[in-house]
Amino acid sequence: MDFAPYQDTDPQTTRALSPPPQRSTSRSPNPKSPPPNRGTTDPFLASTLPAPSHFTDEPRGDGRGFGNTDLEGGRSNINLFDTSLPLRLDHEAMLAYLLLPPAGGVFLLLVEHKSDYVRFHAWQSALVFTAMFIIHLIFSPSPVLSWILFVFDLGLITFLTFHAYQDANNLDRIELPFFGGLASSFVDAE
Description:
By secondary structure, the chain is an all-alpha fold. Helix content is 45%, strand content 0%. It has helices at residues 11-14, 43-46, 89-98, 103-111, 116-138, 143-166, 179-189. Helix 4 runs antiparallel to helix 5 and helix 5 (116-138) packs antiparallel against helix 6 (143-166). The longest helix is centred in the last third of the chain and has 24 residues, at 143-166.
């Protein structure tokens, strides 16, 4: 069919027509539909609709189910202390720094999807200790600087692990300069 605004022929002549309506009075009944109620003239009085609880698998009144006014799909029921792994929130946040950094942070980024607190610490651990790994590679020819960096790494791991454990009760975040803000922006963008 040509939809150009200026056509040589009328589009109505080339259009396929609908089949004519059937004039027979005998119709086969539909086994799924109830027989029509011919006693009343008001179609709204003739049919009864099931209750809204008929359309849900769960009982009505608990805030879930068909017709709920929660536009975010139940996000109000989310517990901020839930995690994807069967571990406590504070233990999982500590593992971001204790599981062979930065590999522990990357591992938690892959498996943890519920807790923004754990994901923040996983991002921060992955970013900070990847940068520290690169610094170790740069200063590896000097044994003195390597040991100083190693002691600094251990102190940083201890400091971040302690704060990840301690601040889990109120979900406070200890943000390192540059890397903490970057990790926070990554978690907020997810």
